[in-house]
Design goal:
- There is one protein chain.
- The chain is of the alpha+beta class and 306 residues long.
- The protein is 55% helix and 14% strand.
- The chain contains six helices and seven strands.
- The protein has a five-stranded mixed β-sheet with strand order 2-4-5-7-6. Strands 1-3 form a two-stranded antiparallel sheet.
- The longest helix is centred in the N-terminal third of the chain and has 53 residues.
C-alpha cells in the first residue's frame, strides 16, 4: 500500500471521526436545549453557568431568552400580587364607610323632616347606593382582569339560569309597567352558575332600565350546534349603529343613556365573564326598534371536544 493510500485512509478516518464528534455535539446541544425548555414550561428555569465553548451560539441565545422570560414571569407575578392586595384593600376600606352612609341616611329618613329635607335624604340614599354598586362592580371586574378569580364552567341547566335572572328584575319591571316575558327552555350548557347569573342579570337589568313604560322585555334561549344562545330582547329606543361597537367597553354610556341610572360597567363585566368561559356576547339593534343582546354559552367544555 502506497504512502498516498495511507494518507487518504487517514483522512477518511479523520473525517468520519470529526463527523461523529459533530453529531454527538449537536445531540448534546439539542438535549440541553430540550432540558432548558422543559424547565421553562414547568416554571422552574433559573440562570446557570454556561460554557459557551460547549454550547452552540443558538444554545446561548436560547438560554438568554429563557432567562428574560423567567424574569418577565416573576415581574408579572409580583404585579399580580400587588394588584390583588390593592383590590382587597379597596374592598375592605370602602365597605364600612358606605355601610355607614346607608345606615345614617336610613335613620334620617325616619326622622321628622320637611318635604324638602326628605327629598334631599332620598337623593343622598340613591347616591350612596350607586357608590356601593360602583365599588362592587369595579372590584369584580378588577378581580377578573387580574386573574384573582375565574369562572369555573360546568354543565348546568339553562332554564334555571333564565328564570332566576327574570325573577330578579320582575319587581323593577312591574314598577315601570313593563311586561317581562320568560320563554321556558330545556337543555344545558357549560357555564359557571354564579358568574353567568351576574352577566345575564346585568343584561336583563339594562333591558328593563332602558325600555319605556308599556314596553316588553323577552328572555329566551335556543340550542345551537356548539353554543346555547340566550337572547334578551327589548322594545326600547335601540342603539345607534355607530355606538354598537363601543357599548361593551368599560364605563361607556351611549347618547341614549342620559336619565337612566348605571355605571357603564354592566355590559363590560358581562363580556369579560362570558369570554373567560369560552363564550361571547353580541348585540343586534336598530334605532327606534329595540335591541336584542345574545349571550353565547358553550354546550361542551373544551376538553370534551378533543
Amino acid at each position: 500500500m502506497t504512502v498516498l493510500t495511507w494518507w487518504l485512509l487517514a483522512l477518511a478516518v479523520a473525517g468520519i471521526s470529526f463527523g461523529l464528534w459533530q453529531r454527538e455535539a449537536r445531540r448534546r446541544t439539542l438535549q440541553h436545549l430540550s432540558e432548558m425548555l422543559d424547565q421553562a414550561v414547568a416554571g422552574g428555569f433559573a440562570e446557570e453557568r454556561f460554557d459557551e465553548t460547549a454550547l452552540s451560539a443558538l444554545g446561548g441565545k436560547f438560554a438568554r431568552f429563557l432567562r428574560g422570560s423567567a424574569a418577565a414571569k416573576r415581574a408579572v407575578e409580583q404585579e399580580r400580587a400587588a394588584v390583588k392586595s390593592l383590590i382587597a384593600d379597596i374592598s375592605h376600606q370602602t365597605r364600612t364607610p358606605i355601610a355607614n352612609l346607608l345606615l345614617y341616611t336610613s335613620l334620617l329618613a325616619e326622622s321628622d323632616l320637611s318635604p324638602a329635607q326628605q327629598e334631599q335624604v332620598q337623593a343622598l340614599t340613591a347616591q350612596a347606593e350607586k357608590l356601593s354598586f360602583l365599588i362592587q362592580a369595579l372590584v369584580k371586574a378588577s378581580r377578573l382582569e387580574a386573574g384573582i378569580v375565574a369562572p369555573l364552567p360546568s354543565p348546568n341547566p339553562v332554564g334555571q339560569l333564565l328564570a332566576e335572572a327574570v325573577d330578579q328584575e320582575r319587581s323593577a319591571a312591574q314598577t315601570k309597567k313593563i311586561t317581562l316575558r320568560l320563554i321556558p327552555c330545556d337543555g344545558a350548557a357549560v357555564f359557571d352558575p354564579r358568574w353567568t347569573a351576574e352577566a345575564l342579570g346585568n343584561v336583563v337589568n339594562n333591558a328593563v332600565k332602558y325600555t319605556p313604560p308599556g314596553g316588553t322585555v323577552t328572555v329566551c334561549a335556543q340550542m345551537l350546534d356548539s353554543f346555547c344562545r340566550v337572547d334578551v330582547a327589548d322594545t326600547g329606543p335601540g342603539i345607534p349603529e355607530g355606538e354598537q361597537g363601543e357599548i361593551f367597553n368599560r364605563f361607556y354610556r351611549g347618547t341614549g343613556s342620559h336619565g337612566a341610572g348605571g355605571s357603564g360597567l354592566g355590559l363590560y363585566l358581562a363580556r369579560e365573564i362570558l369570554t373567560r368561559q369560552g363564550g361571547y356576547i353580541k348585540v343586534s339593534s336598530r334605532q327606534g326598534a329595540g335591541s336584542t343582546f345574545s349571550l353565547y354559552l358553550p354546550r361542551e367544555s373544551p376538553d370534551q371536544g378533543l
